[in-house]
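Human: We require from you a protein record containing the residue sequence and its fold in token form, and nothing else.

Assistant:
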Amino acid sequence: QVQLVEAGGGLVQPGGSLRLSCAASGFTFSGYAMSWYRQAPGKERELVAAITGPGGTTNYADSVKGRFSISRDNAKNTVYLQMNSLKPEDTAVYYCKRRVGGYWGQGTQVTVSS
């Protein structure tokens, strides 16, 4: 069965960096586009970044452009989200999603605070 397991969240000061990872299993990873979403308290879940199966095309929410970078390693069945210049408003639970079929990971908490 499809499994997505996020890791790498934590507490970081404003201006800091984190790298999230999402390990996938149960399907042919390289054949599927993957996305990162986030949900802050009291807000709707929103798309942060997405990447195609081969990894050649990416897109980002305007709020994270220039600060976040999505990538993937198809040999390791893993998608990453490098987050730089973090702001308090980036605080949220971050989720990995396989776009086809709507499979979600369990989420990882990112808290940006001094």
In short: The CA atoms of residues 46 and 53 lie 21 Å apart. The mean pLDDT is 96. The radius of gyration is 13 Å. The first strand starts at residue 3 and ends at 7.
